[in-house]
């Protein structure tokens, strides 16, 4: 049974998939104190939040069972992604479900800002019939500058065009061609700032976008321009905006988000030119149902080991690629695990080569799984698909992935090479049609071994009697041999025996094997 803690308000209709799942216990409580949250998270397998719950490193460290954090929405700036990755916790979000609601909210803010609707409403509610004071401006023929042309930016642009606005947009991923297709003008950030009568930001809050709209960039804007932020507090520098409104450079602003939320007694709210909502962009029945459903499904997929649609802290893989790669997952992990268990020294470099059927596929997920298999020897079960790369890079281990045209006669081949400060070892494996995974090469020796169960790898001299002596000694220790493969470079030269046996080999047996004539090295492992 998976325990899923939901610590922010979520649509109950939206989380139906969770509530109806027989393997899930959903605990919903949006009023937990910090201490209560620490207690609840300690026994939870999953956590689902919106933007209120601050998912800090401390919280993640109190959650030994936690496998996934689901964000019912887009922005993940309230989640410590590094901490999640360090602890192998997958973070998923629901980026599509609230796009329309937020774009519509931006339009509502745009029109309210142009026509002073909140201010006029406020006066009228106080029984003051003011007409002269609230003369607005038309949107038609005005220029809307959009910074951040992703899902929401694009939807806002289409709606603004319906109001006969001219739209100019900047986004590092927006090309001239894409802009033409969307029917907007492509501009640099400076051009957008210089031409906008209304400027709206729709970027994530990241290092590069923090205070993107600041004292200097506001200086580039037209006098009397207006600014909207329905994305994230902090993209527009609040002090700079305050000053620009006070000195008349900026005629007004519409804000749905603030650097610190909830924003109570905020200086910007004291300005009549500023209209505001309390982070309501995604607050519609439809958006909340959408994001709750999307995140519930992804969280359950992570818990049940399925393919994830919207991972945040690991690369997303299309379902077609996933389908092609899935059969290779076990092979890649077992090859990595086998090789690291027989390699001595401090790990420095891992090279993974793919050929045959894998030549034209994005094999990054397979490399990640190989690395997980390799690191398990050192880190145990704490390493997983999410933190394998980061763990390797934190330890200074270099990972390379290459495609190779040499298939060595196999329809598909995965080769892993490990370099340590002492040696370089190589293993190759393949998926045999209908027969599953096979190790087909260990260093220079050709073998045919199923990578599972208890294995013994013996380096020896290719001499008569060596194999028999190993068999007899194992029999003395009641170790039954299931399969045995021998590979040699040349007659009488170096050779390797790989045995699969029915139980784990105990230390004294391994020691005695090491003392047998012509045996040079004995390594035992369990896959
Ligand atoms: N107010 C709300 O309730 C609400 C609701 C939903 C989303 N949001 C926020 O809206 C923002 C946009 O969401 P989205 O779904 O459109 O995201 P998105 O990922 O689809 O789009 C973001 C775009 O910003 C662009 N970008 C990144 N850095 C940039 C930079 N330096 N300059 C210009 N563009 C840059 C990206 O290339 C991307 O195209 C996010 O911050 C999200 O958290 C707010
Ligand atoms: O990033 C988002 O999805 C929005 O800011 C919505 O946040 P919320 O779920 O707290 O409304």
UniProtKB/TrEMBL annotation:
Q: Which domain of life is it from?
A: Bacteria
Catalytic activity reads: (R)-2-hydroxyglutarate + NAD(+) = 2-oxoglutarate + NADH + H(+); (2R)-3-phosphoglycerate + NAD(+) = 3-phosphooxypyruvate + NADH + H(+)
Matches recorded under Pfam families:
2-Hacid_dh (PF00389), 2-Hacid_dh_C (PF02826), ACT (PF01842), PGDH_inter (PF19304)
Keyword annotations for this protein, in alphabetical order, are: Amino-acid biosynthesis, NAD, Oxidoreductase, Serine biosynthesis
Function in brief: Catalyzes the reversible oxidation of 3-phospho-D-glycerate to 3-phosphonooxypyruvate, the first step of the phosphorylated L-serine biosynthesis pathway. Also catalyzes the reversible oxidation of 2-hydroxyglutarate to 2-oxoglutarate.
Q: According to its UniProt record, which protein family does this protein belong to?
A: Belongs to the D-isomer specific 2-hydroxyacid dehydrogenase family.
Q: What is this protein called?
A: D-3-phosphoglycerate dehydrogenase
């Amino acid at each position: 049974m998976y325990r899923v803690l939901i610590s922010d308000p979520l649509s109950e209709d939206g989380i139906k998939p969770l509530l109806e799942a027989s393997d899930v216990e959903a605990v919903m409580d949006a009023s937990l104190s910090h201490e209560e949250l620490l207690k609840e998270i300690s026994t939870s397998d999953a956590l689902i939040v919106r933007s209120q719950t601050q998912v800090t490193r401390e919280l993640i460290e109190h959650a030994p069972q936690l496998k996934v954090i689901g964000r019912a929405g887009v922005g993940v700036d309230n989640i410590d992604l590094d901490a999640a990755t360090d602890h192998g916790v997958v973070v998923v979000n629901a980026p599509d479900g609230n796009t329309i609601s937020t774009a519509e909210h931006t339009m509502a803010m745009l029109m309210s800002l142009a026509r002073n609707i909140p201010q006029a409403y406020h006066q009228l509610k106080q029984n003051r019939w003011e007409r002269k004071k609230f003369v607005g401006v038309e949107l038609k023929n005005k220029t809307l500058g959009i910074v951040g042309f992703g899902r929401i930016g694009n939807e806002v642009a289409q709606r603004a065009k319906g109001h006969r606005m001219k739209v100019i947009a900047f986004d590092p991923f927006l090309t001239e061609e894409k802009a033409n297709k969307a029917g907007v003008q492509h501009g640099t950030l400076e051009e957008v700032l210089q031409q906008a009568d209304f400027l709206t930001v729709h970027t994530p809050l990241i290092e590069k976008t923090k205070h993107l709209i600041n004292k200097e960039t506001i200086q580039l804007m037209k006098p009397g321009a207006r600014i909207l932020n329905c994305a994230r507090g902090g993209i527009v520098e609040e002090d700079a905006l305050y000053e620009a409104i006070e000195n008349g450079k900026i005629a007004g602003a519409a804000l749905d988000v603030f650097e610190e939320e909830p924003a109570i007694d905020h200086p910007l709210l004291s300005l009549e030119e500023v209209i505001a909502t309390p982070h309501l962009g995604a607050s519609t029945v439809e958006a909340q149902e959408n994001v709750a459903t999307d995140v519930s499904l992804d969280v359950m997929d992570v818990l049940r080991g399925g393919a994830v649609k919207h991972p945040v802290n690991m690369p997303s893989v299309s379902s077609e690629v996933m389908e092609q790669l899935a059969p290779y997952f076990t092979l890649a992990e077992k090859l990595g695990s086998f090789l690291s268990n027989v390699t001595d020294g401090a790990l420095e470099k891992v090279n993974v080569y793919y050929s045959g059927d894998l030549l034209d596929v994005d094999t990054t997920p397979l490399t990640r799984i190989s690395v997980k298999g390799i690191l398990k020897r050192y880190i145990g079960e704490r390493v997983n698909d999410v933190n394998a790369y980061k763990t390797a890079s934190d330890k200074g281990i270099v990972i390379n992935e290459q495609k190779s045209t040499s298939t060595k006669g196999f329809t598909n081949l995965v080769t892993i090479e490990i370099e340590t400060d002492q040696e370089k070892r190589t293993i190759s494996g393949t998926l045999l049609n209908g027969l599953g995974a096979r190790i087909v090469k260990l260093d220079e020796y050709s073998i045919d071994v199923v990578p599972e169960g208890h294995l013994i790898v013996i380096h020896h001299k290719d001499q008569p009697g060596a194999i028999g002596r190993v068999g007899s000694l194992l029999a003395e220790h009641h170790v039954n041999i299931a399969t045995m493969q021998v590979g040699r470079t040349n007659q009488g030269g170096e050779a390797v025996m790989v045995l699969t046996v029915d139980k784990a080999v105990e230390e004294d047996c391994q020691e005695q094997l090491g003392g047998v004539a012509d045996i040079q090295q004995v390594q035992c492992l369990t896959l």
